[in-house]
Amino acid sequence: MNSTLKYKNFIATIKYSEEDEAFIGKIEGINSVVSFEGQSVQELKDAFRDAVEDYLDFCKRKGITDIRKTYNGVLNIRIPSEIHSRVAMYARSQGTSINAFIRDSIERKLEYAH
After folding, report:
1. Distance separating alpha carbons of residues 67 and 32, to the nearest angstrom
2. Are both 12 and 48 inside the same structural domain?
3. 52 and 85 belong to one structural domain
4. Cβ atoms within 10 Å, residue 77
5. What are phi and psi of 5, to 5 degrees?
6. Is 40 among the domain residues?
7. Statement to judge: residues 48 and 93 lie in one domain
8. Closest by alpha carbon to 51, among 17, 2, 13?
9. Which structural domain range is residue 100 located in?
10. Alpha-carbon span 76 to 27, nearest angstrom
11. Which residue from 69, 61, 4 is spatially nearest to 33, judged by alpha carbons?
12. Helices 81-93 and 98-113, packing angle to 10 deg
């Protein structure tokens, strides 16, 4: 089973709870904790859609306009020193910075993901 669900540009991570004998989901990328569950895949999908709609309704009622988690744009990654060296050398050879190289690489990867 895929470990994520998507609905209206929201993503949920999914885990199976043996104790509860149910799928447990959590909406990611928002400033609230919204979880849901289902005993079957269809129940889980329905519960996810309901959870997203409930969250959107809640935000609307409360006047919350920032419905997504905000990120500050700073990302600290850990990579092997050999890759770090290769990235630095390649960026330098292209007349760019490591940050610009990584940002461009991530943007290209995300373009292909859609």
Report:
1. 9
2. yes
3. no
4. 6
5. -125, 155
6. yes
7. no
8. 13
9. 81-113
10. 23
11. 69
12. 100
Is the domain of 50 the same as that of 94?
no
Q: What share of the chain is helix, strand, coil (3-state, %, to 5)?
A: 45, 20, 35
Q: Are 3 and 16 in contact (CB under 8 A)?
A: no
72-86: per-residue pLDDT in tens?
888 899 999 999 999
Q: Does residue 56 sit in the same domain as residue 85? A: no
* Number of domains composing the chain: 2
Record the pTM. Answer: 0.71
CA distances from 62 to 24, 33, 35, 51, 57 (A): 26, 16, 19, 16, 9
Tens digit of pLDDT for each residue in 40-65? 999 999 999 999 999 999 999 999 99
